[in-house]
Design a protein that fits this description.
The complex is a heterodimer of chains A (320) and B (76).
Chain A lengths: L1 H21 L5 H9 L13 E2 L2 E2 L4 H25 L11 H21 L4 H23 L2 H13 L6 H4 L11 H23 L1 H6 L10 H49 L2 H46 L4
Helix pairs in contact in A: 2-10, 3-5, 4-5, 4-11, 5-11, 8-10, 8-11, 10-11
Chain B lengths: L2 H37 L4 H32 L1
Helix pairs in contact in B: 1-2
Classes of the chains: A mainly alpha (320), B mainly alpha (76).
Chain lengths: 320, 76
Amino acid sequence: MLQHEAAQHAPEAAQHAAEAAASGKFNAGETIIGHVANSSAEHPLIHLPTWMGIDFSVTKHVLMLWIVATILFVAVTWMVRRYIKQSPDRLVPRGSMNALEAMVEFIRDAIVLPNVGKKWVRVWTPLLLTLFLFILGANVIGLIPAFDVIALMNHSFLHLPAESFFSRVLHGGTTATGNFNVTAALATITFFAIIIAGVRAHGFIQHWVNMVPKGMPWPIYFLLIPIEIMGMFVRPFALTMRLAANMTGGHIALLAILSFVFIFAELFGRAAAGIGVGLVLSVPLAVGISALEIIVVLVQAYVFTLLTAVFIGMAIHAHH
Amino acid sequence: MDGNAIAFMGAGLGLGLVVIGAGLGIGKLAAGAAEAIGRQPSAANQITGAVNLPLFLLEGVAILAEVFALLIVLLK
């Protein structure tokens, strides 16, 4: 009987959804997902061929990855070159180099050194600095609504043709690290870094031997070895999901609050209701959540780097 | 009540339980840290450093639960 009722309601529900989509009603779910997820895979920004089963077409998140990488590369190399070009015996940092130096010292002294030990600091600091700056850059650029401003200009006076690159680049979310594929790639780097750290410190076989504690009665190893192997994979998976979910969650919350404006405007039929709700409720809440997002952005970059350092340290100092 | 309703209820209930657990855990962590700093203010930096890691691991557990609840709701 439940099936019969469901079958009865299904065509009504489908008709309702089609009506709603056709009449231009504000669909909050679609709008939120459209602003957070990647741009459509069928209509990529730059179409590239498929090689060995992997489609290399450029979507919005790939474009954001390139933009973040370019900005970071240009900014950091320019700052460091300007600093090094001073007379070699008096290297005094000026201006922005101070900030970069503070960041590098913080990561080296507070994150890498306590976990990895003095012997391996110079080996692992570059990787952890790269991870930190890249994740921080990608997170922060996701907070800047540059593409939304361009979309607003497009809608009001630019009116770019609908199929041009600039129109298509406005679809999709800007937070590259909100995509779990991106964070999975970063976590894969961590996965291999842990193995390489252990192998360099102890040799190939000894690294795997170090994963289980020594001196236990032999039947326990049947339980411990699968648990350690699972742990080896679960830790990067947790890193992946932690970063991706934190980034998308904040953006979804922000967009949902701003959607109240449109939902109330439609509910009461006039724009004034929407604007009223916006002024009193949505905009102050959105400001609060954006402030929280700034904290979350910094914290998530720090946590990813810290956990990578901790896991690398665990692989290096396996015999406490 | 069709299967979807039970799935949604399960996801919501489970998520609520996870949030209770995470909130209790983080609260205990913060209380312990505040008390320790009160006993020895000169060790404040070290205590903060020791608290950081378990804090984010616990937060990660809560976020993982949120992801799985979303999966339940979206994948039906």
